[in-house]
Amino acid sequence: MNRMLKIVSLLPVLVLAACGFHLRGSAALPPGMERVHITVSGGGDFQRKLARALLASNVVLEEKSGPGIAELHVPAQNFTLQILTVNGSAQVTEFAVHYHVVFTATDANGKTLVATQAIDLQREYSYEAGQPVGNQSQVEQIQGSLIDDSVQAVLFRLQAVAKHGEAAASKATGTLPATASTTQEPPQYSPSPVN
What we know:
The protein is an alpha/beta fold and 195 residues long. The protein has 3 helices and 6 strands, in the order αβαββββαβ. The protein has helices spanning 2-18, 44-56, 132-164, and strands at residues 35-40, 60-61, 70-86, 92-106, 112-126, 181-184. A 6-stranded mixed sheet has the order 2-1-3-4-5-6, with helices on one face. Strand 1 (35-40), helix 2 (44-56) and strand 2 (60-61) form a beta-alpha-beta unit. The longest helix is centred in the last third of the chain and has 33 residues, at 132-164. The chain is elongated.
């Protein structure tokens, strides 16, 4: 009976593995990205979450760049706030949080896998002037969610290169929300730290 219970409890895991299911954050990366050095302007949560996602994808993270080590470079990542609506008393009632990430990737031989690309995401939220603590908490949650989605977008693009070649990276957006946009070769960026 105990053996049968173990077999039944493993069945869903085997079914998911058979259909190609991967945990969020795990990706099949291109050849030449087994060892990766990452540099992220401003560091912070984006760097930590990107490092975790790469480790989940069986990548060895290297502290320094060098021969035989792929490079994942993020020269810009920043948040901005935009006022969306104002009420009759001239009080802001709705904001949008924008997150902008620029990245590029090269393989262990120095070949460009993903040319400079940008990921731009945004979320809107209602603002209540009488709830400053609640508003700050809401902004922090939104920022965390945008960072998660951006890390996934980077992984989707790298996975697209692995499956379909370099040209596929600019078209790979994965499961980005409707308010997200992606661009190749952004006109400008400033490597300012995350707020």
